[in-house]
Structures are given as structure tokens and as C-alpha cells.
Amino acid sequence: MPERSESDSRKLLRRLRDSLALPGKGQDRLDRITHLIADSMGTEVCSIYLFRDEDTLELCATEGLRKDSVHKTRLKLGEGLVGRVARTAAPVNTADAPSEKGFRYMPETGEEIYSSFLGVPIQRVGEKLGVLVVQSKTARQFSDDEVYALEVVAMVLAEMTELGAFASDGDGMAALHKRPVMFRGGTGQEGTAEGHVWLHEPRVVVTNPVADDPLTEIDRIREAVGKLRVSIDDLLSAAALDKDQRQVLEAYRMFANSRGWLKRMEEDIARGLSAEAAVEKEQSAARARLEQVEDAYLRERLHDLDDLSNRLLRILTGQGTDTGAQMPEDPILVARNIGPAELLDYGRKLRGVVLEEGSVGSHAAIVARALAIPLVIHAERIITEALNGDHILVDGDTGVVHLRPDDTVARSLRDKMAMQAKAQERYASLRNLPAQSKCGTVTRLMMNAGLMADLPSIEGSGAEGVGLFRTELQFLIRNQMPKRDELARLYARVMEAAKGRPVAFRTLDIGSDKVLPYMKPQDEPNPAMGWRAIRVGLDKRGVLRMQVQALIRAAAGRPLTVMFPFVSELSEFRDARDELLHQFDREAAMGHPVPADLKIGAMLETPSLAFAPKEFFDLADFISIGGNDLKQFFFAADRENERVRRRYDMLNVSFLTFLGKIVTRCAESDTPLSFCGEDAGRPVEAMCLAALGIGSLSMRPASIGPVKALLRQVDLAEVRSVMAHARAAGAESVRPAIMGWLATLPE
Ligand code: PEP
Ligand code: MG
């Protein structure tokens, strides 16, 4: 890099900073800047285009183009050369702009006389803010140095935009992070909430993009990178890292030690940027690349680089994750992603959660469900847009988030929330009444749980007990295998919180999507059908034994209900049951008090078990249909795959026929049957399950009210008759007939 251009760009940045320090309106500042850049770069034209909305760029200031086109000339993202720079987040440098592909002539600007064109994006860590352009009459290609210098200037403009330097009223620019923005994500957990943003990782604010003394800045960045390297090495040498954590840290180490990364930042500093601004410039470039790559592995690595840049910024600025900011009232957590333990730490303080990533089956989603707070996943770019304390509305039912909503939007969500609250009041009045249908049948309504955080809901919901306690969650939120005594204490607390109501503890269901961080992950092509649940329990007896011992000890003489997940055949059930009985005898022999009553059941989650020998149905004290898994295997449709997971209806006649067969087989052996998949919590589906003769339904606590309300309203014999008619008429699903019939019922 020639020394001359270095000092030129430093000089330009300093002039820029001095000019920005002068008082004035946003528009005056923009005008001064374009003049200054054109003058320093020796071009006739300098223009600044800023985003008006997500895909419209507006000419906001110019030196050289017609002044009356300012705030009039607009371009769509991707339109013309300016739009191309904005879309690709990469410079366009051409000696002959009019013959460049995509050139769009804008007569109102008078730009036709300018041949050369150089445009660079104005962006700040992935947030596209606009485009900075210089043009000149002489047909010449701008040198690499000039491109680089203009990028550095654009970086400073981005920082100043972030700080609100160009905000003004009227025709001027709206300040950033002020506009209402809507995000269309996916549903992680239903429910609605209104509150204020609480960023899991607050943004780092850079207030000094331009530096006077490059040598000091170079020292600062070297020292910070040194600290970063040491901190990563420390993390890597810590014990109890799982394979994924190790892989991420190895990637961090690779980037942190990369000479290219540091060198590029040092070059930016030599151009006049401060150490912080140089890190952000690199981070912006990585984010821009991230938008272009499809490859999942590369995307992950670019995310790693992004995280690493954040760490480096925090070292440089001393702004930790704890910025001292006060958590706002009604906090709604906004994050790229979050682990289950961290989410649990926030606990019931939160009104909702919005993630840029996440998935329906993720552990965070499970925790959000336990906390009964709405969760929206895949809200892309929300962490770039949201600021701590921003007003935010979360609609977990539709997966939509409104950031800084205007009044009409806020009002309509509030109406929806008020209606939901009214319905909740109605459900609360049913809390102590049985789910007795008009025909006299009483269905037991139980709740699903998995964390201590779930248990308080047992009172409010009116659940008769816990029909499914997913024990794996306690294993998933830890970094190491819990100890037997620790588990025994926890299970005892669960039983105490249930106050004598039954709790069906399901033994560990790991594998598939539930991977324990401290167990060697299996490289399985199809983990949902792989080594999971009771298969692992039977092959790794130590864990199963430890868990059932903990359960027996927790019961301390009280009744105990245990069920085994994912049983596929009689012998598996027999084997697991024998193990439990053996431990029961062993505990008794050791003088520990044993449960007064022990019920051992199986989850029916694979079609094969419905066809097991009669001995299975006789041996099981109860059977619980795990509808989520059973449905995925019945229809061969992955429950985690967004494309197919909603494709097949539980009310499909084939599936109902199959469920009917299970009901008959259980009845023949007098074996109590329940259903604990998600469908049990949907009122219409629950009603049909009850009509089929399934006597107990286990669901999310929030679903108990709506399910009970409907069950109490209908005669199950009538439901059966509507279903039978639809089937006789050859329907593929009974849903249309059922919905039609429900519509005729009095309110
Ligand atoms: C099911 O499969 O329906 C079930 C209740 O278990 P899980 O969702 O935990 O797999
Ligand atoms: Mg299951």
C-alpha cells in the first residue's frame, strides 16, 4: 500500500470527522460530506444513497448531480448500478458506467455525462444502510487503493448513521432503529406477548470510528487479539467440552490465529480507522458473505467469525455482556440462539422469546414451552434491528414479530390478547370441574412436563396429574451426567409439587434430536429411527439402572409410575420391566423404602407395538400413545421437517383406524390407555381421541382449559356417529365432517 494514499485517506477521514463534529442538521452534514469526499478523491461527483425502506434507496445528498433530484431519485434494491452495490454488498468499479450491465439512466440527475463510477456499500455489521458513489467524466478505472479508501469512508459513514448523525425531520433521514419493522418467522411456541426488547447479547456501540494515531490503534488491536487468543485457549483446555463446542472453539482459534484477519484490520487502521471500526469493517464483510453462501458448513464458520468479532469488540471497548443496562419491564428476549440452561436462568421473568435461529424441536423451544411463553424462531435479522428497550409484539401463533409497531398494529394484537385472556377466564372457571361430556363419559386430562418450572402449572391448569414427565430435559440442560442422588432429590420435588396426583415418569428418551452434550454423539444417517430411547437404555444398562434407582428412592414409599419410551416389541418391554423390578428388589434388600404401588407402562410410538403379542398388553400396567412419534412413523413424515410435518392430519381415516385397533387391543386386556402427543392438546383432535375411547389425554397445561371446554360441550356418541358417517361415505379425513358438525352446535 503506497504511503501517499494511506496518509490521503487518513487526512480524508480526519476532515470527515471534523466536519461531522460541527453542529448542524442531518441534511447539512450529508451535503458537507459529499462535497468533502468529492474534493478529496478528485472526482466531480459524490453521492450518498440511503435506504428509505427495506428495498428502496433514495438519493439523499450529492455533490455534482442535480440538487433538485435529492430526495426525489429512488431506486429499488438491485436496480441500476447503485442498486447492484446495495444488493450484493460489493463495490462496482467501472470506467464506462453506461455500458455496464444493469445501468439505469436517471435523467433527472444529469449523470449521463459521467463515465466512471465507483460505488461501495454503506453497511454496519450486516445492516445495509446505503451506497456511497463517486463519479467522474474521465473514463478511468478507480485504483484498488481508491476503492479501499472509499470503503473505509463508507464504514465511518455507517458508524455515524448508527449514531444518528444524519437524522433529521421532514425530507431528511429517519434515524435508524426507529422505524416499525415486521419479521415473519416460525412458531416455536404459541401465545402472544407485548413487551420490550432485552438483547441476550447487547450490541457493541462504537463511538470513535476515526483514530488519530494509527500506531496506538495497531498496538490496541494486537493486544486485544492476543487476549482473545489466550481466552480461547483457556476455554479449549477446560474440561467437559462436547464435540460441537470443541469444534466451534477450534474454528475460533483458527480465525483468531489467522494472519490474514489481523493483517486486514491493521490495513484498515493504517487508513485511519480506529481499532473498533476496523473489527466492525471485517465483521460487516463476513456478514455480507454470509448472505451469499448456501453451504451450511460455511455459514456456520462465518457465524463463528461473527461471534469472534463480537468477542474482540467487547475486549476492545470493555463493553461486556453485562452493560449495566436495566432489564425493561415485560422483557422479551431477542437472541440469535440460546441454550436451554441460559433460557431457564431467565426463567419466568420473560414475556416471550424471539430467535434468529432455533427450531421447533430445539431444547430452547422445549424450555419456552415449559415456561409457557411464546417463542418465535427464524426471525431473520432481528438482532441487527432491535435495540434494548424497543417496544415489541410477539405473535407465537402466527410466527410474526412487530418491532416498534405503530398504533394500529399494536391495537389489533392487544384485541387478540384480550380475547385470549377472556377465554382463559372462562377456562379458569372450569378448573375444578371434570372433563365430562354430555354422554357422561369423563376423560382424564393430564399435563406434560419435564422441568421443575412446569410444575406450578399443575394447580392453575386443573390437570389431574402429569401424564408424561420427560426426564431427558434434566439431562439435556446440564454439561455432565447428573448424579443419582441429585436426580432422586429432583424427582422427589416433582412428586411433592404434584401433591399426591400421579406422575408418569418416562425414562430417558435420548438420541434422535435429543443429544446429550456429554455423551459421544452417534453418527447415524437417520437418528429418529436409530439408537435412541429404550434401545440406548437396554444397551447401556448403567444409565437406566441409575435412573430407576433414583426414581425408587425419590418415591420413598409413595406410589410410583414409570414408562419406557419408544418400545418396539414385547421383549424390549419385558427386558426393561425386569430391570426395573430387579432394582426394586435390590433397593428393598438394601433396606430402602420401596414404592407402595409400582405401575410400569410403555409408550406406543412405533406401529409395530400395536401388533405385539397379547402378552405385551397383559403385562403393561398402562400404555401411552406417543402420537408425535407414532404419527411420524405411520405416515413416514419427519416431525422435524417443516416441509412435511404438518402434511398429514391426525384425523386421517387410516390413522384413526389404526388408533381404533390400539384401543381394542388395550380393551381386550383391560389395559388403561392414554395419549400424550401434541395432538392431545388440540381441542378437536382431543375430542376425537376421547370419542375413540382413549380415556386419558396428556398435554401442555395451557391446552387443558380449551380441551375441557369442548369435551364438556359435546356428546361423544354423536362425535362417533359423525366420524362413522364420514368414513362410510369414503372420506379421507373426518375433519370436514367434524368441523361442519361443530359449527351447528349452540355456542
Ligand atoms: C411423542 O412422541 O408423542 C411423545 C410424547 O414423546 P416426545 O415428543 O418426547 O418424543
Ligand atoms: Mg416420542
UniProtKB/TrEMBL annotation:
Cofactor dependence: Mg(2+)
Residue stretches making up the GAF domain: 25-171
Chief localization: cytoplasm
SMART domains reported in the protein's UniProt record: GAF
Location within or outside the cell: Cytoplasm
UniProt EC number: 2.7.3.9
Reaction catalysis annotation: L-histidyl-[protein] + phosphoenolpyruvate = N(pros)-phospho-L-histidyl-[protein] + pyruvate
Any one Gene Ontology molecular-function term assigned to this protein's record: phosphoenolpyruvate-protein phosphotransferase activity
Keyword set, alphabetical order: Cytoplasm, Kinase, Magnesium, Metal-binding, Phosphotransferase system, Sugar transport, Transferase, Transport
Pfam families referenced in this protein's UniProt entry, alphabetically: GAF, PEP-utilisers_N, PEP-utilizers, PEP-utilizers_C
Record-stated family: Belongs to the PEP-utilizing enzyme family.
Protein's recorded name: phosphoenolpyruvate--protein phosphotransferase
Lineage: Bacteria, Pseudomonadati, Pseudomonadota, Alphaproteobacteria, Rhodobacterales
